[in-house]
Design goal:
By secondary structure, this protein is an alpha+beta fold. It has 6 helices and 3 strands, in the order ααββααααβ. The protein has a 3-stranded mixed beta sheet. The termini are far apart. The mean pLDDT is 92.
Length: 147
């Protein structure tokens, strides 16, 4: 079942590798601000106003080992903690994340556990790829050719 708020587990080999580490602070700040502006300064998932974080959306081509950036969205801290449930579990804040998942998705605890199990199964498949190639063509729209 596809929910409004989903887990987006990334391959273990891609942990700690994100746009913030690849781009300058100025570039990342620009992308983060654009994501907030695009969402009218509300969480792109639950609609909450307030402090927003930028979240990178990725797709994974298992056959070719390509991790592709597909979007950068603004999300509240609670939605971000659900999206990155693995990290949230490591820091001991899963109960808050599970409650937020259930509230946003109007889901039961059983549905939460089922969605988490499916996300973990997909994560195992992602981890079978030994090395991911990075596709950042999404960012091309921000590059102005020299004319």
């Amino acid at each position: 079942m596809k929910y409004k708020l989903n887990f987006e587990l990334i391959p273990d080999s891609c942990w700690y590798s994100n746009l913030r580490t690849l781009l300058s602070k100025r570039q990342w700040d620009f992308l983060r601000e654009e994501a907030k502006e695009k969402s009218d300064y509300k969480c792109s998932i639950c609609g909450r106003k307030g402090l927003l974080e930028a979240h990178e959306r990725w797709s994974y081509d298992l056959d070719n080992g390509v991790q592709k950036l597909t979007d950068i969205i603004a999300v509240c801290k609670d939605c971000h903690s659900v999206i990155h449930i693995g990290r949230t579990q490591l820091v001991g804040d899963e109960e808050r994340a599970e409650n937020h998942f259930m509230k946003v998705n109007n889901a039961t605890y059983v549905e939460y556990r089922k969605a988490l199990k499916e996300a973990n199964e997909y994560h195992k498949k992602l981890n079978q790829v030994p090395e991911w190639k990075l596709d950042l063509t999404y960012l091309q729209k921000y590059i102005k050719p020299n004319e």
